[in-house]
Design a protein that fits this description.
Blueprint: E1 5-6, H1 8-18, H2 28-34, E2 38-39, H3 45-51, H4 59-68, E3 72-76, E4 82-86, H5 90-115, H6 122-140, E5 143-144, H7 145-151, E6 158-159, E7 171-172, H8 174-184, E8 187-192, E9 201-205, H9 206-210, H10 218-233, H11 238-245, H12 249-259, E10 262-266, E11 269-273, E12 288-291, H13 305-308, H14 312-315, E13 325-328, E14 331-338, E15 344-348, H15 354-371, H16 383-386
Parallel strand pairs: 1-10
Antiparallel strand pairs: 2-4, 3-4, 5-9, 6-7, 8-9, 10-11, 12-13, 13-14, 14-15
């Protein structure tokens, strides 16, 4: 059989439809589940990602899902990044992504505890700290990181991440302990003490927040996660999948065999797609979007030329973090930022037509109104944002 060839135009059309940019999603739950989660390292990103995809979205819609109904939770997962994922998908996320990060972070923390002279046995030190944190949360309920440090001598200790460097210096080990416990699934971020533009979570035990989390079977979790990713991000290269999950090439290849992935041609490069997803999607109506920094679409692939063209150096920083972006029909054409008076300003640096410019300006005016004076400061501003 001839290899199916996907053009750049087809991939851009799929991106628009399947990421709810060419057509809106129905709910917070639908969008989050389809995209396998939302980036949450920057606290404003999930809110702005949903605003771009859900007509009439209000901040309380996400807060209700997170804190009242707890249909979504925040979890360190793929690539040691903080995500917002559906609670019912957490077992698969834990096994397919978080456990691998947990192993790496645990080894690094133990080694640094010993290297810094905090304890001769870093593993025993971490175990004591873990028990102390969980005991305190069980006895006192949700607690801030600062209060945990004050209450628990087991969290005392510092290390120097870069000896002799200007960015080095003695740094508390307590935040790293909480990160390890979080990514292991022992504790979770509960209510946020700050507003929606800040991250000041109260920590609580995972069982107190959402109850017992069932264990997922590793191979089944890998198959489920990769299948669902390809459904909404595919076709893609094997490198894209490996990077997105932050896992090994062997892990990805086994999952692709299990789902029967089909090899395809991605405008000259080899790729894969689900076996029942080779048909041509109908092209969507023209669309534009303003997406926040670290949006799951902008960060969705590691091989990005097909939607970035030559703008990578302007909309990504040197560490690979995306700033706010402006999109037209499946390609990035610039970015956006706020002026001193909090008005959203579109930065168009690619050739687009007058209709697209008008549509982008309309979106910028809507976003200005929605923000209602709130200032958005991307945690990882791009060169374009800072220009």
């Amino acid at each position: 059989m001839a290899v199916r060839v996907f053009t750049v135009a087809e991939r851009r059309a799929r991106l628009g439809r399947r990421h709810f940019l060419a057509g809106p999603g129905a709910s917070v739950d639908e969008v989050t589940a389809a995209l396998l989660g939302l980036h949450a390292t920057d606290p404003t990103t999930p809110y702005l990602s949903l605003w771009a995809r859900l007509p009439g979205f209000e901040r309380d819609d996400l807060s209700t899902a997170l804190y009242d109904d707890r249909r979504l939770v925040r979890q360190v997962a793929m690539r040691r990044t903080l995500w917002m994922v559906p609670t019912d998908r957490l077992p698969a996320v834990q096994v397919a992504a978080s456990n691998r990060v947990a192993d790496t972070e645990t080894r690094k923390l133990i080694a640094d505890v010993q290297k810094a002279g905090v304890a001769a046995d870093g593993s025993a030190w971490l175990d004591r700290a873990r028990r102390a944190v969980l005991r305190h949360l069980d006895d006192n309920g949700p607690t801030s990181a600062a209060d945990l440090r004050l209450a628990l001598p087991e969290l005392a200790g510092t290390w120097d991440p870069a000896p002799g460097k200007p960015w080095g210096g003695q740094t508390s080990l307590a935040p790293r302990v909480l990160t390890v416990l979080d990514v292991r699934g022992d504790i979770m971020r509960g209510h946020n003490q700050g507003g929606w533009t800040s991250s000041r979570p109260l920590w609580c035990s995972a069982t107190a927040w959402i109850g017992e989390v069932p264990n997922a079977e590793p191979d089944a979790a890998a198959t489920d996660m990769v299948r669902n990713w390809l459904r909404n991000f595919g076709p893609a290269t094997v490198a894209d999948i490996t990077w997105w999950f932050g896992h090994t090439l062997g892990w990805v290849r086994r999952a692709l065999v299990d789902i029967g992935a089909v090899e395809v041609d991605l405008h000259g490069s080899p790729g894969v797609v689900l076996p029942d997803d080779v048909d041509i999607d109908p092209p969507p109506q023209p669309w534009v979007a303003l997406l926040p920094g670290l949006d799951v679409t902008t960060m969705g692939w590691t091989e990005r030329d097909w939607y970035l063209n030559d703008l990578r150096a302007q909309v990504f920083d040197t560490r690979g973090n995306a700033g706010p972006t402006a999109w037209v029909d499946g390609r990035v054409i610039g970015g956006w930022r706020q002026t001193e008076d909090a008005r959203v300003e579109v930065q168009v640096i690619a050739d687009v037509g007058r209709d697209a410019r008008k549509a982008l300006q309309h979106n910028a005016d809507r976003l200005t109104e929605w923000l209602d004076g709130a200032r958005i400061k991307p945690r990882f501003p791009s060169p374009l944002t800072k220009a």
